[in-house]
Amino acid sequence: MATASGFAFFLEPKVNGCLKEILTKWCKFLKSKDSNLVLSGWLGDGLNALTVTGNQNGLSIASTYTFTELYQCPNPDDPNTLGFESWDAFFIREFQDGMRPVAEADIVHACESAPLQYPVSNVQLTDHFMGKVQSYSLQNMFHNDPLAKLFVGGTVYQAFLSALSYHRWVCPVDGIIYKVTHVPGTYYSENMFQGFFGGNPDEAAPNNSQPYIASLATRALIYINADNADIGLMCFIAIGMAEVSSCEVNVKVGQHVSRWARSILVAPPIVWYSVQM
């Protein structure tokens, strides 16, 4: 991808339009009953990895729950599907009640993600996000929305969500939904300074391009007016990555949301950014 030709190819709007059509059709299949045929693999050889991840606190094992003790499963006695009607239903499975108590902090993690970059302070309206440093550029991240100017000088917290983890996103603060925006963008573009840059191929180039794709990838922006005046207006930005790029928003403008009280996004992307004034 990060060759000169690949860099240009995956930035091309027509290419990304075609990829969107392909991935949209694939998404429909993953929501159909036919897709649960592959669950025997996820719930077979992959079950141990899923269970270990669900029991982790950071890099340490914090508990020894079984998969069905961790997650709500429609039919725990079915070894092939656990009762999930589709792969999508399995992927966005819910935790058992009380499995993840919410911290008392004013801002909490919106999902089971791990910190990637934080805090990145004094972010600018425009910056060189295509460079080796991959700076955050608010105007690009916010898709030229005038609201971007309100966040100049603010702070970005960036996190990464593993495919093995819980895959619903919840509200990180108590507040009111101010605005929701869907931004069409790239799916496989990666930073030119990753991949084959310098003659040393890097298989992790997509993962190393996460700040870069904040300005380019398909994404959903959810602006939240926090109840806490010290937080004020913040923006939750869910960034698509490769084929994991659907952004199904479950909240509406004007709706009051509470920390972890309900999903704000399902079947989500793997990367998220929180931008605070």
Automatic annotation (TrEMBL):
GO molecular function terms listed in the Swiss-Prot or TrEMBL record: phosphatidylserine decarboxylase activity
Domain L-tryptophan decarboxylase PsiD-like: 1-45
Transmembrane segments: none
GO CC terms: mitochondrion
GO BP terms in the entry: phosphatidylethanolamine biosynthetic process
Keywords tagged on the record: Decarboxylase, Lyase
Protein name: Phosphatidylserine decarboxylase-domain-containing protein
Organism the protein comes from: Gigaspora rosea
